[in-house]
Amino acid sequence: MEEYSARLGAIAPEQFQVALDRFGLGRFLSARPTGVGLAWQTVFVDASSGQYVVRGNPLFPGQFEKEAFFVRLLHERELLPVPWPYLLDTSNDIFGWPYALMPRLPGQAADVGPRSDLGPEDQLGVVIALANALAVLHEVYWPACGEYQAEIDGIAPFEKPWAEWVTSRVREKLSWVRNGPGAITDQDADWAEELLTSGRDALGESFTPAFVMHDYTQYNVVFQQDPSWRVSGLFDLGEAYIGDGEADLSRLTSILLFRNPSLAGAFVRRYLTLRPPRPGFAERFAVYMLDDILIGWASGWHRRNHPNLSLRAWSEPYTSAGEDLLEPPGSPHSS
């Protein structure tokens, strides 16, 4: 037996073979840990019938059912490659937990920033490819904003209008961090409320509800270069919901702002060239960015890296970046 990650534990070749047999996928050849996406939840498996990914030990009840729903949705729209078929086994008899088995997507991982193996031109190509793919994803429309519910194996509409749902979610996250480790100050909370107030009308601007991946970064896609960079596959859809596509800009933009602000600007501007912004973009961007930053703040990531900064001091360079990201480099208003 070999331990592939702390979460999955030790797995014997015979267990992989039983899983392959369950779906008629041939003879087990080898397995190895993955190096992209939720690496601690996935394993590459080679079989006589092809290359696969096994994802096991769900992070929350219904994770794999939710992923299966959104993978099927994107597969049916035929806009971007996803791991299809997404084969789900909810029993515990093989590994001790439910698992999903899916074909491995073609392509390679690619990163950007100071530690990237890629040169500046290729890094720019990667972020342009990410913007192109995200704009395509947001062509997957739905009748109303909502979240996946396993009980109906479908999308349940939010009980509140979009602006109220987003505002409530931010306030709920603020309540998480009011009294825990790294608790925010009253001044932080007041500043956050000011952002919500400033963004209220902008959040209320009408839009067509679309697929929102939420965890859209370079780590949850693979790329091919032929000769231009393009996204050749998308995976890890456990955070997806239906809402305003602009909310998907936040996570990757924050990574790029931290590593290379010029790439962040290139990413956002390319996306908005393909999907022009509605009025109030900068105000909405601030709220969406705060919503995402609070996840990292609650987990302690930001505080481990900059323990002496308040929530506002850490967040404001990100939440206030919306206007600058719209400006081309070298313009009088860009910073």
List the helices and strands and how they pair.
Blueprint: E1 2-5, E2 9-11, H1 13-22, E3 28-33, E4 42-47, E5 50-56, H2 63-77, E6 87-89, E7 99-103, H3 120-137, E8 146-149, E9 154-157, H4 162-178, H5 186-203, E10 210-212, E11 221-225, E12 229-234, E13 241-243, H6 249-259, H7 261-274, H8 281-299, H9 301-305, H10 311-319, H11 322-326
Antiparallel strand pairs: 1-2, 3-4, 4-5, 5-7, 6-7, 8-9, 10-13, 11-12
Helix pairs in contact: 3-7, 4-5, 4-8, 5-8, 6-7, 6-8, 8-10
How would you sum up this structure, described in words?
42% of the residues lie in helices and 18% in strands. The model has no long low-confidence stretch (mean pLDDT 92). β1 (2-5) and β2 form a beta hairpin. It is of the alpha+beta class. It has two domains: 2-103, Phosphorylase Kinase, domain 1 (2-Layer Sandwich); 120-326, Alpha-Beta Complex (Aminoglycoside 3'-phosphotransferase, Chain: A, domain 2), CATH 3.90.1200. The strands form five sheets. The protein has a five-stranded antiparallel beta sheet with strand order 3-4-5-7-6, sandwiched between helices.
The CATH architecture of the largest domain comes to Alpha-Beta Complex
Describe the strand arrangement of the main beta sheet, using strand numbers: 3-4-5-7-6
Radius of gyration: 21 Å
Query: Given the helix and strand composition, which structural class is it?
Result: alpha+beta
Helical proportion, percent range: 40-55%
Q: Under CATH, the topology of the largest domain is which?
A: Aminoglycoside 3'-phosphotransferase, Chain: A, domain 2
Terminal Cα span: 54 Å
Low-confidence runs: none
Within CATH, the superfamily of the largest domain carries the name: Aminoglycoside phosphotransferase (APH), C-terminal lobe
The level-1 CATH class of the largest domain: Alpha Beta
Q: Could you tell me the number of beta strands?
A: 13
Strand content: 15-25%
Sheet with most strands: 5 strands, antiparallel
Shape: globular
What is the typical, i.e. mean, pLDDT?
A: 92
Number of domains: 2
Annotation field: number of helices: 11
Could you spell the SSE succession in H and E letters? Answer: EEHEEEHEEHEEHHEEEEHHHHHH
